[in-house]
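hiii so my PI (J.) wants the whole complex modelled not just the main chain, which honestly fair. so below is everything: three entries, each one labled with what it is. i double checked the lines twice but i was tired so who knows lol
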Amino acid sequence: MEKELKLMKGNEAVAEAAIRAGADGYFGYPITPQSEILEYLMEAKPYEKTGMVVLQAESELAAINMVYGGAGCGKKVMTTSSSPGISLKQEGISYIAGAELPCLIVNVVRGGPGLGTIQPAQSDYFQATKGGGHGDYHLIVLAPASVQEMADFVDLGFELAFKYRNPAMILSDGAIGQMMEKVWLSPQKERSKTVPEWATTGKPPTRERNVITSLDLDPNAQEVFNQKLIDKYNEIREQEVRYEEFQCEDAEYLFVAYGTSARVCQKSVLLAREQGIKAGLLRPITLFPFPTKKINELADKVKMMLSVEMSAGQMVEDVLLSVNGKVPVYHFGRMGGIIPAPDEVVENLKSKITGG
Amino acid sequence: MAQATGIKEIIKPENLVYKKTKLMTDNVLSYCPGCGHGTAHRIIAEVIDEEGLQSESIGICPVGCSVLLYNFMDIDWQEAAHGRAPAVATGIKRLMPEKFVFTYQGDGDLAAIGTAETIHSCNRGENILIVFINNGIYGMTGGQMAPTTLPGMKSSTSPYGRDIATMGNPLKMTDIVATLPGTYYVTRQSVHTPANVKKTKKAIRKAVQYQKLNKGTCFVEIVSNCPSNWKMTPVQSNKWLEENMLPYYPLGDMKIPEDQPA
Amino acid sequence: MAKIRGSIVVEIDRCKGCEVCMVSCPTGTIAMAKEVNHKGYFYAYPANPDLCIGCANCAMVCPDGVITVYKTKI
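here's the output for the full assembly
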């Protein structure tokens, strides 16, 4: 079957992609800048097409717990929100990770902290990659930089979530959520009829009862379980790293940026080269697992790295860890919902080169 | 297995009157002596067994004394975060509408942290059963005041007795959800005497059967005891329940469906 | 006239000695033992088995479900 070409907002693309990916359920709550996802799904009435459930919950907290319930039954379920709402979901996300359930969470990041702004930001990097919720767990985090990737990562997110029985997150931002671009949409997938053997579907006489829980009062057993999670994350680190290189072959200075910042830096690379500076861009696509090995390799070739983020500097810490002291690593960022301009980034790079 | 038996000649399979349902596992219950949880579990398990719903049932257990409920009843279970069971149940029932889905929650779970989830699932009329065990105190965490603690009742966080002026009145959740059009059958029962056990079982059976009608939420409150944190013997606690809890939380049906026989 | 006679079986090691069965028994069949089970509880037992009418009040109200009830006409 053919892919379909449409002009869509990032948020709308997520919604349409969810329907076509054969999602079983979506539970959400309105919050700027991602309410269009819930609105699109309500208007599209996928229940009549594929039987996909769409429900506006009473809070983001309730929505993530509805996701937990559906995920425990082995269904493809998802929720979306923006920064303050994602904070509300952290308890539920920790429970989902602790119960080893698959699901997809989309964060269309806005400026924070607190109620913040409604403009785009990248200040939830720590929350997404270092925890957010309590306990030793990780989300698989995908960072789209285009409306196409917003759509593609829905299917990829579900695939990885079910492959590893782990929650997956699409970490987007308000710019990508709101912008309109061409997007190739995959044909409608059928909703899966496979029931995972661990799912709660009603206990037939042929098996033991299934219990979905993250509780274990025996510390020895809990440690064994935590080690199991560590092994899982190590496998994910080995198998699922994704990134994109732009003009890195002969680069002397490297931008490291994701999402909207990466789009800006792509232009900055071109502007810098016009001025005789051999810049390149490493765009992480998976933020967890982070492209540590690749960045470490590039540190052998470049003189300096600049982590460009719409935040006070969060991913820069992972770049520093990956570089492990080989070359200097700096951060440049705008906050409060402001997107840096490409020439602003180049000026900052130049100032770092001259030591200003 | 050590047993004390009555007249041995009468003990024959054809004379069997009552045996604990096989839907309760062999695990020893973790509850204190005399706690109503065990009785409530057994009643629910009996109804599920008698209605033939073991392979169709998904239960959602709470955070509270009954956090380990999944060890005691042989059906599929999901452990919810504190208070979130109705939201978890919503996710399950919306995605698997043909299953029998029920929550089992205590007073902190349902009436404190979970108030929003309780009200909204009832308001949407989710086709689930909510079982609410109300013993007016937080058991698992050591006897703190609950939203349903009675005025003047002592607890570890109301050591001088619940003071209405600073701590508010006890919350009558069952009365509140009965006012919502989304609820179909709302009742308050108890399990401290054999007569009440029979009535509770009847109520649970109605709620289980009503779920197939997809006409809204069934809500069964079970006023129960907490001998340990009320600091009484089990027998004393049941008496205290009758004299103090029941006047404030009277038993009976609060909402019966118009289209059902009484 | 036929008389109803009952007989109960108590799993004494699972009994927690809560005494709720004893106060629910209408005939005075049940008493608490003077020795403890292996958990340290004074367990319930049919002290006056001839009085038992097999009404199953005890079994219905038992939180731990440790009582099985039989009855017959004699």
